[in-house]
Amino acid sequence: MSAWLDPVPWLILLPLIWATLAFILGPRRGGRLAMAGLAIQLGLAVYLATQMMATGPRVHSLGGWGAPLGIDLLADGLAVAMLLLTQIAALPLVIYARAYFSASSTASAPQWEGAPRRMVPSDQFWPLTGFLLAALNALFLSADLFNLYVTLELLTLAAVGLVALGGKPSQVVAALRYLLVSLAASGAYLMGVALIYGTYGTVSIAHLTPLIGTQPPPAIWLAGGLMMTGLLAKTALFPFHFWLPPAHGGAAAPVSALLSALVVKASFYLVLRLLLEPLAPMAEAVSWLLGLLGAAAILWGSWQALATRHLKRLVAWSTVAQLGYLFLIFPLLAPDGLALQAGVMQAVSHGLAKAAMFTAVGVLMLATGRDTLDGLAGVAGRLPLTIFALGLAGVTLMGLPPSGGFLAKWLLIDAALGQGQWPWLIIIIGGGLLTAAYVFQVLRQSFLTAPESTHFQPVPRSMEWTAFMLAAASVLLGLRGVEWIELLAVV
Amino acid sequence: MPDLPILDLTLAAALLFTGWRTLAAPDLFKAVVLFIVFGLFMALAWARLEAPDIALAEAAIGAGLTGALLLDALGHLRARRHGRSLQDPQP
Amino acid sequence: MNALLRGCTVLACLGLGLGLAWSMLELPPAPIQMPGLVASHMDQSGVDHPVTAVLLNFRGYDTLLEVAVLLLALLGMLAAGTTPLHASSFKEAPMLTALARALTPIAVLVAGYLLWAGAFKPGGAFQAAAVLAGAAVLLRIAGLLPSWTTPADGLRLALAAGLLVFLGVAASGLALGGLLAYPPEWAGTLILLIETSLTVSLALILAGLFLAGPDSRPPEEQS
Amino acid sequence: MSTGLLYAMTGVLLFVLGMGGLFLRRALMTKVLAFNIQGSGAFLVLVGLGQRSGIPDPVPQAMVLTGIVVSVAATALALALIRRLADNDMGTGDEP
């Protein structure tokens, strides 16, 4: 088959191309470019998945050199599952974003003290989003530790730019904190790569896995520790979560959705990939620690979500909690693959549900002009579709059947019981109850009757529908779980 | 270790010293100047490591451009805040 | 932050440093030796300088993404809303103006030399671009270049041209069996093409990191 | 000890120095400097440790060139955000 038709390189090239064009052509054409590009990307990702199910994992040697001289791209089940999530979640988000930015520029745009110019947030949204998606796709496909460092930096800079979009003081503070944490984390990761290159003379994951073997020298343990710590900080796993609520809670709604649904999953994916392949000897030593940190994240994040009165903060803290579930899989990883399936299912269903939640909250904020729970009174009558979307996304986060979240938690419980590690059950179920509590808090508030004086801004229907579609997808995912699990079996 | 040239040891010590002083300096202007000196020492270190490409890049980009960016930002902060440095809001 | 926590942080950093240093002392030689591998492929790389061969051919994909990273820094600045170079304190300096006028042609010559030299000895697009950007910053400080507002159409095209050319070459490599694959007889020319366009765009981006300023146009003209 | 290993050791110390600076210093500008020093340390280890046998290795050298440019980009963005913060007159240390 000709390389022209290989979807693997195009999944990286295409977003790079439309991001660059969106920058050159300006914001008005950016939205259309993004939608067209993402539609093709989604097609490519589905095509790659079906192709891979038939013929097995794909390697694409960049420049035709092949590792270790060149860089290889690898599309296996895990990578393609993440690619699918990225394109599926991003396409509705760009449709939403187009409506969001035109609506928020016509609505009374919030002005702050000393604003030097009237910001048009969508100016840079499209190119930044394009580079963000290119970074994600490149990261999922890369099989080279140093190249992964470059993709991580690309992802960081795109994400930080998106957080700062609009330039409100709180956003700039959050972006700066996020940037500094990410840079320190990338530095730690790079140090690990340096030690690994020094020890083995290569950064190709395929070559490193047999070289590291089961008894690596101390330098590799330290390298692995540094890389893991850096990636956990980027994933915002408890206790590194402190940067996440201001960054995700302060950004524009489509940005928060992209960040919570996709960006934090990228570094989780790397932790998983590294512990499954080159750093497998470390997995046993750190799996319990990761599981415990995950448990702490679930409890602390849910508690904070319950305590806050700000809508977006609530959803952001919920991300901290839901990320915890991803790390519960590490003590349960076993050859039966249940825990791995649970992890990917959780990543995908949380990605869709959280994108739905942030988009729905964006609709509510635009309608009420406020970011507080108290401002929600009466919303259910005015925006029933959005409240329904919020409820459906809540169903996924709580883990009720038939949602993807249910399937994820079911697989996790199955894995825990199979290995006799029943204490994790308490965390899984307790976390679900806390999630139910904060989701119902929002729903209850929205069904209260509004004070007479309340005035609701009209909101574009396309925003409501995209939020609903994302939420519905997160629930229906549970019914298509078998396909995803089959996909993961391709290694 | 008789095979270690004095030059390399001196350079290593200079790097560590300027690096440490950069971060320890309470005055930001001093810190930035020390950082530029640090960058120039880095360029020398790259030359000693037989990496002339990096030496060139470090001198031009690492020390030169970053230094200029830092001085520019500092001038901006001074103008706006009368020398009061910006602090991380949370410890 | 209290003293105990500070002390613990210092100790942890020291411990990490000592541990890392100790772990490197007795490492056996690396099982894969890249210098030999690179040397044996130099004849297919299109250039004579190993570092350039790695940077733009063997690992050219890293460089492609790195150009995007640099453009992203500028995009991030524009997204946050930027403020121009703080030039007021440098004004009224005829010496500086004269210096800037004198140094600019030299900088262009040096950049051209660095770009050309990259094929067979140290140098290349990034170093050349840094020199050009330095000249631009000097011109700006001397007041000979205006501050940017939001970059206009032509400028945006110039800023992104390097990346676009690189992407185009990368995509056409797909016809030969892989992203960024160059036919060996064309490799030198293609690398020079990429490097030349990168020099221009990178210089503009690097200069833009200094020159980008707030948009002072009235809102209705923007969108 | 070879030249490469000596500089790799120096790199390790610079790395932890920068790391400590990122944790302990509160001035944002100093944090940016600390990040650069941390990065320089990692770069020295990448090249120094790779060349501990004394043979120059173009692969880590090219990686460091990439890394330096990435560092400049990140530094520029951080400084732009700091300048923006100064304009907004926020983040003085007494802000929540």
The string of secondary-structure elements of chain B, in order, is HHH
- What is the count of DSSP helices of chain D, taking H or I runs of 4+ residues? 3
Biggest sheet overview of chain B? none
Strand content of chain B: under 5%
Count of DSSP strands of chain D: 0
Provide an overview of this structure:
- The complex is a heterotetramer of chains A (491), B (91), C (223) and D (96).
- Chain B has 91 residues and is mostly helical.
- Chain B is built from three helices and no strands.
- In chain B, helix 1 runs antiparallel to helix 2 and helix 2 (28-48) packs antiparallel against helix 3.
- The longest helix of chain C is centred in the C-terminal third of the chain and has 28 residues, at 184-211.
- Chain C is an all-alpha fold.
- Chain C has one domain.
- The model of chain C is unreliable at 85-90 and 214-223 (pLDDT under 50).
- Chain C is built from eight helices and no strands.
- In chain C, helix 4 packs antiparallel against helix 7.
- Chain D is mostly helical and 96 residues long.
- Chain D has three helices and no strands.
- Mean pLDDT of chain D is 89; it is low at 90-96.
- The interface between A and C is large, with 74 and 64 residues.
Question: Main traits of this protein?
Answer:
heterotetramer; A: 491 residues; mainly alpha; two-stranded antiparallel sheet; 19 helices; D: 96 residues; Helix Hairpins; 3 helices; 0% strand; elongated; disordered C terminus
What is the topological layout?
The complex is a heterotetramer of chains A (491), B (91), C (223) and D (96).
Chain B: H1 6-24, H2 28-48, H3 52-81
Helix pairs in contact in B: 1-2, 2-3
Chain C: H1 3-25, H2 34-41, H3 50-58, H4 60-80, H5 94-117, H6 125-141, H7 153-172, H8 184-211
Chain D: H1 3-24, H2 28-50, H3 58-88
Helix pairs in contact in D: 1-2, 2-3
Question: What's the short version?
Answer:
The complex is a heterotetramer of chains A (491), B (91), C (223) and D (96). Chain A is an all-alpha fold and 491 residues long.
